[in-house]
Design goal:
The structure holds 3 protein chains of 3 kinds. Helices cover 71% and strands 0% of the residues of chain A. Chain A has 9 helices and no strands. In chain C, 43% of the residues are buried. By secondary structure, chain C is mostly helical. The chains are: A mainly alpha, B alpha/beta, C mainly alpha.
């Protein structure tokens, strides 16, 4: 294992902090993120009692961030996990079986890719989040589920295509042919020979996909179809737009957290891929 | 006899992740004007790198060149990149091993051929095209107008090599480096290309450095031969002298590995056992010693200096063939 | 040198994708657990709703509905947007939105390529050196910042603090080119930043690979300058990936720029989709998504044709592949 560079350590540390917020944030001594500090509206950064200030509603931004981290990270990990699992099963199967299955799968992936991510996510969210009684608001937990489902569906063709491509390049190699000639079962060849080789490429893309999902969730929130009054980074940015002129720090804070997280995941994805490339070069 | 190209103590190092790689080491070669010099050696012996280093064509921040190269009175190693560039085309030119990769795949033959004429000789576009057509005729390409409008991938290997020769001789160079010009070609085409080079050399009064791994190619096409091994010149002599009276065991081994007409069928060809030494870590002794059938203790311990016979025959061996010690 | 069979097959593939996309959206609508006619006409009488169901084909079952929609779409009838006071044609909305999206897309591409190509060439030429590292790291960081974040920061600083540029709205070219550009600058920058990073990266990688080729050494041995070799010999064979990526991102910029279009209120096609979805105008949504997919498929075809021009080898090779 190569030694990590300084930026890589920074990325790992930052993501660890975010994971800490996501998992143990509830244990931190904050009031609920939407507790209104009526005497402290739009307090600036590093104020007494509000390190990251407050917004025009009187919400403390640090506790909003901690609560938002939980939501954003949960949605990202759930969508990437599900999308990655389904996408790689479909992609690997298609590339391994070839023939008609492959053609059908590639066409389905292309259909998914021919509509911009956000348009697809928007359409899915709007359809899935429609109540039988359209005038009744959809509860937050259901919105979260709908969001995860929609983003999962968006990710499936993206990750599936990567898995298919990686499998194609490995399934043709001698050791697979050798395993087959020894009478190994297809399922075993896939789990023993294909998956371990395809996995690094998928992990690299999964890091990038986490960034994509975090940005997509935020975009949907800005458009007002995410978790409108819930605590997510995107929700904070959406609310912060009202304070843009007089208290821009309300925007800086969530943008800073979101951008740094995406930079970190992208960087780690890059590191994994670079390691993969150098391994490939040695083969 | 004046030298057109004089290479002294040329060394090339590549910095790699695994340390410094010494591709060429202490090469001295003189190319007299109007002659053809063969450079022979196995793949990886540093022939190509030596030629490119002599012309200054090695790119990259990890390349280090040492020694001096003097061409036609100009000390190339002391000149700026731009000054050396002004000697290309009309002074020195090079043709490459694989004409498929050495021609730009996305540009038409005409533009690649006329480019040198326009940049170096400052010809007009029209004149350059006319001259390009003449050049294609000169290298015996049957339908030059069609070829000018073709892309490289539309031509056969032999045609592409002819085009590359045309590009190289476009500005009448005094010295042509031919880097394995026939290796990538069919055997029948090889002979045609060598024939063409021979004729062009006479017509245009060019000197030539012919790089090859094939002693057979050297035999009929060169006046002098330099044998390279592990980045060093290990033997240098007039071609006829070398074949008749070689000094280096390596040259002998190389010659024995060529099939001959008088071999009975079923005769096993001699193979040089072993491999080239690791270029990042040369041992103390003669670099050929581990593979040499005459090697003695001294060969493994001390690196032989270049020795000179009275007739100018150079070699790098402690126990040369045909010399009484 | 166009091989007819190949192109026929390619077009057929893309048409199938197009049909499946529109069919998929159609099916999605049927998943909505509420009567569509009630959504579209919330305050109408039952007879009016029955008429609407018949008019739109809601009463025909999923396939019948799809075929009717498709028939209308092909003839240029994109359906209607329903208000309490009446209806508007979706095609009229798109007629207004499309030029905005196209201009936004063209400006964004021009800006991104104009910056990315020199940067890519420079960083490939200086690969591994300081300038290359500075360029690569800066672009990497910038590309990780989402475009809406860049948009909001631009608005805060350039729009509000210094008040150099207007932060909202769209001005057609006819009302003054300078005013038009002033309104486009910030949206275009927001959308370009990510593309610049992607393009530079692709071009740099391909150029570094091409610089190792023999034909570069060959060009150098002809006595050509580094500048000429980079721009005339290396750039073109290295730009296939770049062109592909650029063309594909065009499809994404038409309709995909939803957030930027809504932040800056330069209402283009992306915003139309969003407005249709937010306003539960499902017919408008279906037709607009179809138009977006149509552009995507079109640019895919452009890629195929374009790479043939950039690299002539692919014109023949494809057919054999």
């Amino acid at each position: 294992m190569r030694k990590f560079t300084k930026p890589t350590w920074l990325a790992i540390s930052w993501l660890s902090l975010m994971m800490f917020f996501a998992i143990f944030g509830w244990a931190l001594p904050f009031k609920s993120w939407n507790f209104v500090y009526e005497d402290d509206l739009e307090v600036g950064l590093f104020s007494n009692g509000h390190i990251l200030g407050t917004d025009s509603n009187g919400y403390d931004l640090l506790s909003s961030i901690v609560a938002g981290t939980r939501m954003s990270i949960f949605i990202a990990i759930a969508a990437v996990g599900l999308g990655g699992l389904i996408g790689s099963v479909l992609g690997i199967t298609a590339a391994y079986v070839r023939g008609k299955v492959d053609t059908v799968m590639v066409t389905i992936f292309n259909v998914g890719l021919s509509v911009p991510n956000l348009v697809l996510a928007l359409a899915l969210v709007s359809v899935l989040a429609t109540n039988v009684d359209i005038n009744q608001a959809v509860p937050t937990w259901r919105r979260v589920m709908v969001l995860i489902m929609s983003l999962t569906i968006v990710l499936i063709p993206i990750l599936g295509r990567i898995a298919r491509g990686a499998t194609l390049s490995w399934a043709g190699r001698e050791f697979v042919t050798a395993a087959r000639s020894m009478g190994m079962r297809d399922r075993k060849i896939i789990t023993k020979h294909i998956v371990p080789n395809v996995l690094p490429a998928l992990i690299a893309v999964a890091f990038l996909a986490v960034g994509v999902v975090i940005i997509a969730e935020a975009s949907l929130s800005i458009l007002g179809v995410g978790i409108p009054d819930g605590a997510s980074w995107g929700g904070m940015i959406a609310r912060g737009r009202n304070d843009l002129e007089y208290a821009p720090h309300v925007l800086y804070v969530p943008i800073f957290f979101l951008a740094l997280t995406v930079i970190s995941t992208n960087h780690l994805g890059d590191v994994v891929r670079a390691q993969l490339d150098s391994r490939e070069a040695k083969v | 006899m004046s030298s057109l190209l004089s290479i002294k103590n040329l060394g090339v190092n590549f910095d790699t992740a695994r340390g410094s790689l010494e591709a060429v080491h202490g090469v001295d070669i003189e190319i007299p004007a109007g002659t053809s010099v063969g450079v022979v050696g196995e793949s990886g012996s540093g022939k190509t790198v030596m030629c490119r280093a002599a012309m200054g064509l090695l790119q990259g921040s990890n390349v280090k060149r040492s020694g001096t190269v003097i061409f036609d009175g100009h000390e190339l190693t002391a000149m700026s990149k731009e000054e050396v560039r002004n000697l290309f085309g009309s002074g020195m030119a090079m043709i490459f091993q694989d004409p498929m990769t050495a021609l730009n795949p996305v540009r038409r033959i005409g533009s690649q051929l006329s480019e040198g004429l326009r940049v170096r000789l400052e010809m007009s576009k029209k004149d350059a095209m006319v001259r390009s057509k003449e050049l294609l005729e000169l290298v015996r390409i049957p339908n030059p107008t069609a070829v000018l409008n073709s892309f490289p991938y539309q031509l056969s290997g032999g045609m592409r090599q002819r085009v590359m020769i045309a590009i190289a001789i476009a500005c009448n160079p005094k010295l042509l480096f031919a880097d394995e010009p026939t290796t990538a070609l069919d055997v029948t085409v090889q002979a045609q290309i060598l024939q063409l080079l021979r004729e062009l050399r006479e017509d245009l009064k060019m000197s030539m450095v012919l790089v090859t791994h094939d002693l057979g190619v050297v035999a009929g096409n060169t006046d002098y031969v330099a044998v390279m091994y592990a980045g060093e010149v290990v033997e240098y002599a007039p071609t006829t002298k070398l074949f008749a009276d070689m000094r280096m065991p390596y040259t002998e081994a190389l010659l024995e590995s060529i099939p001959k007409v008088d071999h009975k069928s079923g005769t096993r060809l001699a193979v040089i056992a072993g491999r080239l030494p690791n270029p990042t870590d040369r041992g103390a002794g003669c670099s050929f010693a581990p593979r040499c059938k005459y090697a003695q203790e001294k060969c493994h311990k001390e690196h032989p200096e270049l020795k000179k016979d009275p007739d100018g025959h150079l070699y790098r061996c402690w126990y040369p063939i045909g010399v009484a010690l | 040198m166009f091989k007819f069979g190949f192109w026929l097959q390619r077009v057929a593939q893309l048409l199938i994708v197009l049909l499946l996309v529109t069919f998929g959206v159609s099916m999605l609508l049927r998943l909505i657990p509420v009567d569509l006619a009630t959504i579209l006409l919330p305050v109408a009488s039952e007879e009016e709703r029955v008429m609407l169901r018949a008019e739109l084909g809601f009463d025909k079952g999923p396939i019948g509905y799809y075929l009717q929609w498709l028939g209308n779409f092909v003839q240029g009838d994109f359906g209607k947007i329903y208000f309490s006071g009446g209806t508007e044609n979706v095609s009229d909305h798109l007629k207004q939105a499309m030029p905005r999206s196209l201009l936004l897309m063209v400006y964004t591409q021009v800006l991104a390529l104009a910056i990315a190509i020199p940067l890519g060439v420079l960083s490939a030429y200086r690969a591994g050196r300081r300038s290359d590292k500075v360029i690569s790291n800066t672009l990497f960081t910038l590309s990780s910042i989402p475009n809406f974040a860049i948009a909001l920061l631009l608005i805060i600083f350039i729009g509000v603090k210094f008040a150099w540029l207007p932060t909202l709205g769209y001005v057609p070219i006819a009302e003054g080119y300078w005013e038009h550009l002033k309104h486009m600058i910030m949206p275009v920058i927001s959308l370009s930043v990510g593309l610049i990073a992607t393009y530079t990266r692709l071009l740099r990688a391909d150029m570094i690979a091409a610089l190792r080729e023999d034909y570069v050494t060959m060009a150098a041995s002809k006595g050509l300058s580094d500048q000429r070799i980079l721009w005339r010999h290396v750039l073109r064979p290295s730009s296939v990936t770049l062109m592909t990526s650029a063309a594909l991102s065009m499809g994404g910029l038409i309709g995909g720029a939803i957030v930027i279009e809504s932040i800056f209120a330069t209402y283009g096609v992306g915003f139309e989709v969003f407005a249709a979805i937010a306003g539960r105008q499902y017919i408008a949504m279906q037709s607009t998504v179809a138009v977006i997919a149509l552009f995507y498929v079109f640019f895919n075809l452009v890629v195929d044709i374009g790479t043939g021009f950039v690299d002539p080898r692919t014109r023949d090779r494809r057919v054999n592949a």
